[in-house]
Specification:
The longest helix is centred in the N-terminal third of the chain and has 11 residues. This protein is α+β, with helices and mostly antiparallel strands.
Length: 173
């Protein structure tokens, strides 16, 4: 298993992975494809096993108005046949050690029980526009005390309205 930065050649493999990891939803694949097409700054890595992309993680800018205030972890996915084997755990741990990530506040919309293991904490501020009451919105290195609605890249809203996380699904937004 090898973790590396996403290359242009592996982008179609990532789109296919996202469709398999989130069955019944084209949102994640369409989102990542639009971020790429529109040249958005995205920090992203893949896990390669026997020449196959088996996991993916991305971080895009978070905004307070027009100013970048951190990064959103979204999406993160593992091929179904490799889930529950520690692949996602290793990929996330790897990403959290990268210089571009260690220097920023991080936000994730996902399953609290999963992300708390990595140091994410419940987030009262800023407010997540996709999670009423911020029940599934967590942060790391976040010292924000001001009340504001955190911004996402426009592709998060124009692709489709993202579904809310349910149960134990580890969907990151």
């Amino acid at each position: 298993m090898k973790i590396q930065k996403l290359t242009t050649e592996n982008r179609p493999k990532v789109y296919a992975l996202l469709r398999r990891a989130f069955p019944g939803s084209d949102y994640e694949a369409a989102l990542v494809q639009k971020l790429h097409e529109n040249g958005r700054a995205v920090h992203e890595w893949v896990c390669i096993h026997v020449g196959k992309v088996i996991a993916y993680i991305a971080f895009s800018n978070a905004y307070h108005g027009n100013e970048v205030c951190g990064l959103h972890l979204a999406p993160m996915a593992v091929m179904p046949e490799f889930q529950k084997q520690g692949v996602g755990l290793e990929l996330l741990r790897f990403a959290l050690r990268q210089e571009a990530i260690t220097s920023q506040p991080l936000f994730v919309l996902g399953e609290p029980g999963y992300y708390k293991r990595f140091g994410f904490e419940p987030c009262n501020m800023p407010i997540c526009p996709f999670d009423k009451g911020n029940a599934h919105f967590l942060s790391m290195r976040n010292s924000t005390a001001a009340s504001f609605i955190v911004g996402y890249e426009p592709e998060f809203k124009t692709v489709a309205v993202p579904p809310r996380p349910q149960g134990k699904k580890r969907r990151a937004r």
